[in-house]
Each structure stands twice: as structure tokens, then as C-alpha cells.
Give the backbone structure.
Amino acid sequence: MEDIIEVSQLDVGYKDEAVLAGLNFTVKAKEITVILGKSGCGKTTILKTLIGLIPPLSGDVFFFGGKVDYYSEKSLNDLYRKIGVLYQSSALLNSFNLYENIALPIKMHYKNLAREIEREMVYTRLSQVGLLESSHKYPAELSGGMRKRAALARSMILDPDIILCDEPSAGLDPITAAGLDQLMLDLKEHLGMTLVVVTHELRSIDKIADKALVLDSGRLHFFGQYRELARLNDPFIDTFFLKNAKNEK
Ligand SMILES: Nc1ncnc2c1ncn2[C@@H]1O[C@H](COP(=O)(O)OP(=O)(O)OP(=O)(O)O)[C@@H](O)[C@H]1O
Ligand SMILES: [Mg+2]
């Protein structure tokens, strides 16, 4: 299957303090790759690097085979258009209603798009995440699960090749979280989307993961098929999963 993202010998840090070291992995089309690891190990930092927000200290990121140039506006704009992001905090704008929030990326990237086309795009995405009836509501009037679904709709609005989700089901009840997992699976299976998902939820990982990437203190501990990870006899991975399993009881 086609490589959408390839990461080669990637080191990332903040003010020269290394956070990620020597990462190599690929993200294949139409797969869900989950990123796992303890709090503070660098999961969000990986996503920020993949979307062009943090230039690496060294190493390269390739997007559809082309090297990302972190210092070229054109290269970064290309990334912003082709990668959708669901941020850890949902990041909806409070003074805009749901329709306006979801239409925002369209307005930023296509200056003079006909109103009817914009409406068609927004309502298609709202209907895919089950929020058609709520388009006039403001973020403060939505539940946590609805906000996450709205953020997912916004991440999909420009028809991205890949969606990156940072803990999409954190803070949700198990039933709503399962609904969001199903939504992500539907995006992959019915719309052929590719997703990279940071998550701590064992149930979610089990349900959605094709590939898994496990970080330990900024280094790659495992990258490969999730099925293989589940079969490994590895103390670090065992403690990670056991701890999660206990948290979910
Ligand atoms: N803007 C920043 N400036 C300096 N250091 C940062 C910044 N953002 C993150 N870090 C540091 O980088 C490390 C990795 O942070 P990151 O947010 O990637 O962790 P994470 O794995 O996403 O954690 P969590 O599961 O809690 O969301 C942490 O040590 C953090 O303190
Ligand atoms: Mg994080």
C-alpha cells in the first residue's frame, strides 16, 4: 500500500532539549496507526511535527514521497490543505456556531467559493458525524462528545488525505467513545481515509488499530502490526497495557 508519510531518523526538541530521538516509521494509506506511550513521552510532539508546526532538529519527513520543507510557506500550505487535525482540546472557536466553525478551513483556503458549495460541503460532513440538527449551536451548547465529533467534521472538511487525532475519546463515557471509534472505522472503511490516532484507551486501540507505534521516553519502542504487538512478550508493553486495563475497570 502507498506510503502517505515517511519519517526518517527524526529528532525533535524544544529549545535544543531533545524530546524525540531517531524515529523511523511510515504511515500507509487506508490504515489506522495508533501512537501509544506514557504522558509526556512526545506523542503530541510527533503530530505537531507531522503537520509542520515544529521543524525537526534533524531527520526528514516525506509526504507522498516529497520532502517537507519546514521553512517554505508553499510546502507547509500544501500540508495544511492535505492533513486534517483533531486537536487534543477540540479547539473549536467559542464565538462561532458549529456551521461557522466547520466552514472556517474552507474560508481560509478558498477565498471566493460559492455559498451553495460551501453549504453542501459543511452539511455533508455534519451529517457524517451525526450533527446535522445542531449546526446553529455554539460550542458551549454542545456536549463533550458532540464537540469531538464537530472537531472531526472540521478536520475532514477539505477532504484531507490523512487525519491526525490527538486523544479523540479522552474524557468521554465508554458508549460515546465507542461511537467515535466506529466513526473513525467508517471513515477508513467507507471513505478510504487514513488516520493516525493518539490514544490511551485500550478498548479503542483493540477496535481500530492496524499499526501501532509505541514510544518510550522519546524513542521508538515498537512499530509494526498491532496484532504482533498484542502477541509480544515484552515487560514495558505489558506494564503499559496492564496499567491501562486497570484504569478502565
Ligand atoms: N511548547 C513546548 N515547549 C517546551 N517543551 C515542551 C513543549 N511542548 C511539549 N514539551 C515537552 O515535550 C515533552 C513531550 O510533550 P508532548 O506534549 O509531546 O507529550 P504527550 O506524549 O503528548 O503527553 P500527553 O499524553 O500528556 O498528552 C514533555 O516533556 C513536554 O514537557
Ligand atoms: Mg499529548
Summary: Residues 43-44, 88, 166 surround magnesium ion (ligand 2) (CB under 6 Å). Residues 75 and 209 are 30 Å apart (CA to CA). The chain has one domain: 3-248. The first strand starts at residue 3 and ends at 14.
